[in-house]
Specification:
- By secondary structure, the chain is α/β, with parallel strands linked by helices.
- 41% of the residues lie in helices and 17% in strands.
- It is built from twelve helices and 15 strands.
- The strands form five sheets. Strands 3-2-1-4-7-8-13 form a seven-stranded parallel sheet, sandwiched between helices. Strands 5-6 form a two-stranded antiparallel ribbon. It has a two-stranded parallel sheet with strand order 9-12.
- α4 packs parallel to α5 and α6 crosses α8.
- The longest helix is centred in the first third of the chain and has 23 residues.
- The structure holds nicotinamide-adenine-dinucleotide and thymidine-5'-diphosphate.
- The site of nicotinamide-adenine-dinucleotide (NAD) has 30 residues, from α1, α4 and β7.
Length: 376
């Protein structure tokens, strides 16, 4: 039986991954370490926490004592590091927190894994590790910088981060690579494009636009709205991480994403049209509208006039696009969900799960944590 340490498992992608591997693999033990920042919510994984295979620990990945105590208590085989400060706009406001969590936290996890996984030394002095262990770093395509109108990021594209967020993620990747080279620690790095799907915190583009429409608010589009992102349905990403962890060759980097490029403005218009269509087809969905929305019976206000172009993000990367041919060729992964299908699934999920949105915004789940776990 494999013992997983999954950090950031109460966040958007981490929680989706927890759900994915619990369903996919029968025999495992899963330790979730998450500090429950504004972006992490225990309620997101409350059903998963009932599973006897799962244990939740509240704590900071930067803290050596907490990470040590987990490895002392559990024979961890895999560390999958999702925990991070993840929002570019927040990194522009407060860069230092990003360096602490994303860089120092990663190094702390690597160091602890190295210590507990070492079973000997070879003749050159390199550590020899327990059979079957691996560290996987969940990284981002933003480490490659920004593309013009053409071209794709491959694993060989030079690193060229632009924002404090992407600089911190790049630094983390470099320290992972250093542990791989210097100590021969078995690692993988996956670099994925923008994810979307259920449980996405409503400060990122797609859930924020959905939330604002439901509240009848304006929809803020940065700059001219022509920036391009390569959207990846979160479950496709979870499949890629599972494959890379179990089948990826140690030391390899895998780009994850592809073939779902969209301009921001087109996404916003698509969400407007889809919400209106879904609510027209099924009046039950109108229950998701908030009291501040102009009307429940007449949906004509849900139109492109809600869009407002606002001041551009500082250093706004123009375009991201992934070439996933390495992970497709080596591990057989490909993005299965077309944006047109994934976005409808996502919108439906939000329309059906407004309680979750209300709670993560109000901090309701933080209260839930206190009730469940006291001050631990
Ligand atoms: P998220 O912000 O939704 O979740 C992050 C989680 O990490 C939260 O549960 C939070 O409580 C936890 N966390 C933050 N700081 C912590 C700390 N110091 N110690 C312990 N836990 C801490 O992020 P996400 O969108 O799920 O992203 C997960 C990972 O994937 C991140 O490493 C991010 O850089 C990477 N990534 C995300 C995207 C995307 O589109 N969302 C794209 C590429 C890469
Ligand atoms: P975001 O979801 O923050 O992800 P990232 O910055 O990691 O790509 O933003 C996606 C794109 O949407 C990005 O080009 C910035 C833009 N954006 C807006 O136009 N308006 C918004 O309110 C937000 C949050 C983002």
């Amino acid at each position: 039986m494999k013992h997983y340490l999954v950090t950031g498992g109460a966040g958007f992608i981490g929680a989706n991954y927890v759900k994915y591997i619990l369903k996919k693999h029968g025999d495992l033990k899963l330790i979730i370490l998450d500090d429950l920042t504004y972006a992490g919510n225990l309620g997101t994984i409350k059903d998963d926490l009932k599973d006897p295979r799962v244990e939740f620990i509240k704590g900071n990945i930067v803290d050596p004592q907490i990470v040590n105590s987990i490895f002392e208590k559990h024979p961890i085989d895999f560390t999958v590091n999702f925990a991070a400060e993840s929002h570019v706009d927040r990194s522009i406001e407060n860069p230092q927190l990003f360096l602490q969590t994303n860089i120092l936290g990663t190094q702390n996890l690597l160091e602890t894994a190295k210590k507990f996984w070492t079973v000997g030394r070879d003749e050159k002095g390199y550590p020899i590790y327990r059979e079957g262990v691996k560290y996987l770093q969940v990284s981002t395509d933003e480490v490659y910088g920004s593309l013009g109108e053409t071209g794709f990021f491959t694993e060989k594209t030079p690193l060229d981060p632009r924002s404090p967020y992407s600089a911190s993620k790049t630094s983390a990747d470099l320290i992972v690579a250093a542990y791989s080279e210097t100590y021969k620690l078995p690692v993988n790095i996956t670099r994925c494009s923008n994810n979307y799907g259920p449980y996405h915190f409503p400060e990122k583009l797609i859930p924020l636009i959905i939330k604002n429409i439901l509240e009848g608010k304006k929809l803020p589009v940065y700059g001219d709205g022509l920036n391009v992102r390569d959207w990846l349905y979160v479950e496709d990403h979870c499949k890629a991480i599972d494959l890379a962890l179990l089948r990826g060759k140690a030391g390899e980097i895998y780009n994850v994403g592809g073939h779902n490029e969209m301009k921001n403005i087109d996404i916003v218009k698509l969400i407007i049209a889809e919400i209106r269509r879904l609510m027209a087809e099924n009046p039950e969905y109108r229950k998701a509208l908030k009291p501040s929305a102009p009307s429940v019976s007449d949906l004509s206000w849900i139109n492109n006039e809600l869009i407002t172009f606002v001041k551009d993000r500082l250093g706004h990367d123009q375009r991201y696009a992934i070439d996933p041919s390495k992970i497709t060729g080596e591990l057989g992964w490909r993005p299965e969900t077309k944006f047109a299908d994934g976005i409808v699934k996502t919108i439906r999920w939000y329309l059906e799960n407004q309680d979750w949105v209300d709670d993560v915004i109000s901090g309701g789940y933080q209260k839930y944590y206190e009730q469940m776990y006291g001050n631990r």
